[in-house]
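Troubleshooting entry. Yesterday's outputs looked truncated, so today I'm pasting the complete records for two proteins to confirm everything comes through intact. If either block looks cut off, that's the bug. Protein one:
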Amino acid sequence: MILELTACLFLCVNTAPLLASDADDLFALSFEDLLDVHVDIASKTLETLASAPSTITVFNRKKIALLGVNNAFELMNFVPGMQSTRGDWVGAVPKDHARGVYLDSGNILVMINGERLNESSFGKASVYIPYIPIEIIDKVEFIRGPGSALYGSNAFLGVMNIVTKSQNNEMSLAVGNVAQTGAAFSVSHQVNQQTHLFANGAYNQKSGKRYPQGVNDPLQSVYFEAGVNINKLALRARYNQVELNEFLNLGGYSDSNQHRSENTFLSVGYDWLETDTRTLTTKIAYAHHQIQSAGLIAPAATLPNASYDFFVGPDWHTTDLTVSVEASQQFNNGWSINSGLQYSRAEQHKADLRVNYFDINSGEIIVEDPFYQGGIVTISNYAPFQSLQSTFETRSIYGQIKVPFAEQLTLFLGARYDDVKAIDSKLSPRISAIYSPTRAHTFKLQYGESFRTPVTNELYSDDDVTKGNPNLKSEYVKTTELVWRYEGQDWHINSVLFYTQLVDFINLVPNSAANNQFTFENQLDDINRGVELDSMIHITSDLSVEATYTEYFDTPIKPTFKRFASVIANYHHQQWVLSLNSVWRDAVSGPTMTSDFTQPAYFLLGGAVSWQFSARSEISFKAHNLLDKHYRVYDPRVTDGTVAGVGSEYSLHYQIKF
């Protein structure tokens, strides 16, 4: 049934435009108004939080500013079922935790303005784009749960869509401790009735806090994007560059660690048809990702024949080309049909080596003094990496039908079929029944399936650490959710019971064909059940409190937080706004390379104070880890299982609108 719908509806999909009112301050809305906040991430039809056929969390720019965060990935800590911490891999980039899964290769799909950031070599968006400044963000939408029925691979346990500013004229400056400095701007100009221009830019840097391991955690980030709309034509361009040197890389702390990523994105879209009842859009998008990284593998003191520390890492480039056709049809009886076709080509076209010990004659890494290169250098055409240079071609078709049976009951049916050439094909169905007996109460029964295609590192790696498995197939998940949402006059609560079945989960296992080497297998099937709660109450007209709580009923397949929560308190007084927040995480226990490790439970305090001293200007003070809590995050790939948590950071921000 669903596949037939998909095939017959491939000419119809909706890329509904965001309403201008979506940029309004969510924090200031009444509970009645909250029902009318519009999102389109869940269905590609314009829906409210109550009517969307998924479990959604939304942050607008004002709420983000009150949380005191700097990086978009930090917002996950205030989303039920999700967390973001630091780990050991390339550049100690953010690591996603979602519904009991950690140390993934891209189980959350991350998008900017609906365009995917996850790529084909590591799979995780945060490896190539580890820092997305909040200064250029208009809002962030999260789907909690499967999203492959609309977005394909990587929309496995969640989707994060970052919507950047396009209607603002403002600039900001920031300074803070640990040598923080920052500047950002957003400009928008309506040239005439047919032409609109906009641009966003941000620069952020810090020297970072000093840690007992003898390193800092510095950052340098540049972000720029521009767009132009000319009648039905939309052009977009984006560039960002991030450096995360020194702190932690490949399990080793060293002030000589390196991590640098660059990303370029271009797209052209054209609306062939746009009426009140029909749309037809085509888009061509191109992205280029590159990473240069090197981490400490072994200090000189542990090397019998070498006088210098040993570093190694990737110099990899990938590209993504996507062509899509999307359209929609809305009928007078309230029914609507959405579907589309997509072709994508993902290619890893460079897989070089960054290393400081190398024998040019044999083409091998030999960690001995005669083969020291005088520092970290790039080795082109490194033989064990050449198998990584591969191409993924994917052809996709999806369709969705919205059926309002009555004023109180709406049904969504949809599916997406993805055929990844020479690897795998997957059908991702979903169904959602939404029943609203009153304006205050909404019940949802939702079922969806999602998948993740293995990446080149899992399929074709061939080095001293891992051996790829070209016979891997996609891992997939089946999720059933029961949702109850209540909107009262002064408070709301949203509760989600979920039942998740993980099938063919890809796991790192010892390679029986070689000592001291690992490979990948579709080894694990598992079940994870849990509850996610979020609520907000207006205690007075000036004081409100929000809270989230997540608890898993089953032990996660990888050691991660089984229980976690957050609390946000906001107080308004004339031109002043005070916000305090706390993130609590339960204890985690797990094995390490040397012994078992237990990470104690802990909480972190943060917040912001803002003063709007004129109609166009405001000053704010933001704090992360306000009490300078010294905590550790568990990561089994570090020898002792410990990754140092982020220390206290304070910053002062000035913003002016023009």
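Protein two, checking that the full record survives here as well:
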Amino acid sequence: MKVDPSGVTRAARLTALAALCLVTVVLLLPAAISVSTGGPVPGFIGEFGRWLWPAVGGMVLVAVGLAIWERVRGHETSSRTAALSRVETRVKALLAASLAAQTQIKLGVLQQPKLAVRVDGEEVSSADLEAVYERLGHSMVLIGPVGSGRSTLLRELCLVLVERARNDPDAPIPVVVDLATWRAYGSRKPTEFTAWLLREMNRRYGISRSAGTIWLRRERVAVLIDGLDEVPRVDRAHCESELAPFASVVLSTGPIENLPSVHVEPLSRGQVLEYIGSVSPRLDSLEAALTPEIWEKLDSPLALNLLALTHLDKQVDTIGTDFVGSFVVERLSGQRGAGPTIRALKFLARLDRPDLGAPVHMPHRRAWLPLLPTRPLWLLFVRAVPAAYAGGVCAVAFMTGLRLGLWSALVFVVAASSLLVMVNKLPHVFHPPGRAHGIMTAVLGFIAGVVAGLMVGLVGLWLGGIGTPWPYLVTYVFVVVASFFLALGFIPGDAPVPWALLIAITPGVSMIWTGPYVVLSGMGIGFSAGVAGGIFAAAVGRVWRTVRPGQQQRMRLGRPWWVQPAVPVFGAVGLLGGIGTLGSWGTALGVALGLLVTPTAARDYVWPFDALSEVAAEGVTRPLSLGELSFRRKALLHLAQDRLLLTRVDGEYRFAHVALRDHLASCDPTALVRATRR
């Protein structure tokens, strides 16, 4: 009997985790608490009593590491038997979740029409794909149009090969992988195919990477590839060359070089009539309504299933040739609020993600921002962003005046407004008809800006106070050196050093009268506000560069509307916090010096501001997806699954068929909503 090494390793890992938890909770932790509260050191600890808490911390860290390892890698196996069981379980789940299987359940039929295949260059068809696979040397490309039943044939072949591998130790392990999850140029450098294949085998079937590498090298794995047609055309040739050394069966709509071609035969008229008759009397009226145009298109399992589901238990007079469109309309008819559902499904279809139900794993904004209509983008750039700027300046000015005096707040408002013109990343978008358009968005943006401004102000006050315990000379030198480097990033040109020195001299002279602590307190809040404002400006610029030119052009129509005046106006409102105390002009100087960091923080190539602005850009754009995908996303996915538009396998939602996805991606939501209400 062979022992699975990964199983032994996992058992040892779990035993170690249990032992660590037991020792920590039962022995070390009570002893550490006892010693900390003045109790005696237990005898078994001896002279190591002072190391109790470090030991507890170390034990906890090791236990957390083992738990994470178990979470990430605990499912892995290098056992052939376990791998075959997992392949069988997953492939059966894929077959059960397919549109064909769901149709069998809805119609109450025992099986789908039996498909036949024909080898390229041969006249005789065969209903035994396994025999064809054997005769061609375990390597072929299965060709057929969308909906011809290729995926079902592939999965059924996989189950046959699983049984063969169980009975023959030398037979390879079959695995079905979907190229929809592979993108050759989805990142900055091409995804290496072997690494992706090993990752898929690990993620889908729990095959450890080490075992998968050995099995692939020794040709102990038969790779059955689906989804080649989902690979973008620009990546197709590269993908075919990458998969050639590994592929046993590939599904495609066309031939592939160096692989024998096997064609899926279309359904015959007799098969269609036999299938309709098996559902009698629920489809009795369907046969009489089949016109020659319908018969010409009714040659695939997908077309037959869609037609049967659309007209089940209905008196049929006429049938349209758009089977997919009629099915979608029938599935969504009578639903309350069909508009948001259709809009969300269209967005998900155009997004083209392997898993539609991962709300926290939205792709980069480049993938979905161009799919949005113009209105939410206009609201973001013309209403929300200027209002957030104004709210932030208002809140920081209020806190500055409240804590540092009116002069400091006034200097902040004037300097921040001027710097905003310098680092402004707002596009010159224009005002559409209607004065109140987007007023709620502006209010929400202003509130968000106020909240963020209060947080920035608190951070700035903390930064300004950290130098209070420093010696006078240390604080003095720090302010001068910090002013020099802030000015160095602020001054443009190839020789900014003389100008930076000149700016640094200003606080050096001023602190002779004011003292360094006053200037440092103002620099803290100026620096905090400058960093936040620069990063936000850079984030807005990054988002604008993601918007498609066509969307930008639609947003540029109309008369100009300049948004900058809102910032100083609301900043002046924030000056109310300084009424009652004028403050020190040394503090005002510190605020101005701290704000010199703004242009540096707004640059896209300065670390860590570039990374922070990218995070901010994603945060700014994420709420825009709520217009297409509501907070009730799970309910929407469940509804679409119940209507047979989506399917779920291993916790992942996908469209029930690529034809449904393509139809929803190209549909007119308004026209589709009208059709569902008829």
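Both blocks look complete. Sanity check on protein two: The two ends are 66 Å apart (CA to CA).
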